[in-house]
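Q: Here's a chain of 379 amino acids. Please give me its 3D structure as C-alpha cells.
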Amino acid sequence: MEAARALIENCWIDKKKNKELYVKVRRELTKCQKFFREQLGWTVINNEQILKVEKIPARAEGYMGITDFTESRDYCLFCAVLIFLEDKEEQEQFLLSELVDMLELQLKDVMDVDWTSFTQRKSLVRVLQFCENMRLLEAYEGSSDNVGSSIGQEILYENTGLSRYMAVNFAYSIAGFQSWEDFEKQQNQEGEADRGHYRINRVYRQMVAAPALYWSRSDNPDSIYLKNQRQWIQKNFSEYLGGQLHVHKNAAFLVIDEDDPFGERHPREAMLPELVLLLCRLIREKADEGVWKKRQDDCIVVSIKEFQEEMHHYRNRYRAAWSKEYREMEDAKLLKAVISYMKSWMMVDECDGEIVIYPAAGKMIGRYPAEFETKEKSR
C-alpha cells in the first residue's frame, strides 16, 4: 500500500533526492504494478534514476496542473524548456543566455516574448525554479532568483536527463492538437476498440485522480460498472490505497480514512477549508428544508448573488471564530477564494452567472460550538 501511495503522491521518486524512498518503493513495486497497469491503465517507469507512474486522468479538470505555475505563459515556457533539453545530452552544460535565445525562437509563433517585461521574467523564474526543484536541470553557477531583476545575468546549468520522463509518451501523433479537448477526443476514440477495459480504466482514474465521479443518468455506463463491481473495486482500493468507496444516487467518492491519510485532502487544518465546511452545512440545510431545490441529478443551482449573500450572512454569524484575514476580507475576494477552493474539490462550478452545487458539497459539513456564534446582523 505504501508503494502505491508514494507513486500517486509524487510526480516521480528521484533516487538522487530521496534514495531511501526510492529503494523502498522499488522493492515493493511488483505488488502494485498490476493494479496501475490493469485497473488504471497507467504506465510505470522503473529505471536507475526515477520511479514514476504516468497519471493520466479520466478527464481534464480546471484544478489540475502544476501548482507553482500561475499563468498559461508559464506552461508555454516550460514546454519550450523541455524541447530545448531534449536536444541536450545527459550532463551536458549550457548557459542561461543559450536557453533564453532558444525560448524566443521556439515561442515566436505562440506568444510575444519580451524579457524587458517584469511579469515575463517572473514567469521564467517560476519555470526555472520548478525545473531545478524537479531536477530537470541543475544550476552550477548563478541563481535563477536573479533572473527576475535582470535577464542579462548568466547562469551555468547542467542537463540531468530527467526531462525525457516529464512528458507523457503518446502512442499517437499530437502535432495537430489545438486544445486539451483533442486529447480527450483521441483517448475516447482509442477506447472504442475495447470499451469494457477502457471503462474500467476511466472509472478507476476518476476515483483516484479526482475528488468525485458524477453521473446524471441511471443508464450511465460508468455508474453501472461501479455499482455492479462495487465489492471488487472496494477490494482493490483496500489492498493498494486504503479508504472506503461511497456510492450514492448520482455520485461516488473514495473517502480516505481520517487516521490514515495521504495526498491532498479535504478538510485539512486551515481557515479556508473550515469556512467551506460551514458553508456546506448551510447548503445541506437549505436542501433538506427545500429552500434550495435539488435537480434530478442531485445538483442545486443558485445565483452567484444569492450564494454571496449567504456567505455574508455566515461570516456575520461566525466571525468571532474566523481569522483576522477572513473577518476583514472584502466580500468579492472571499467569494473568489471560496469558489476556487470548492471548484478544486468538485463541489461547485460557475455557469452564466449561476453557481452549480454538486453532491460533494453535502458530503462533509462542519459546525462550531454554540459559544462561537455571534449575534446575527440584519441582512
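Q: Can you summarize the key feature?
A: Residues 1-55 form one domain.
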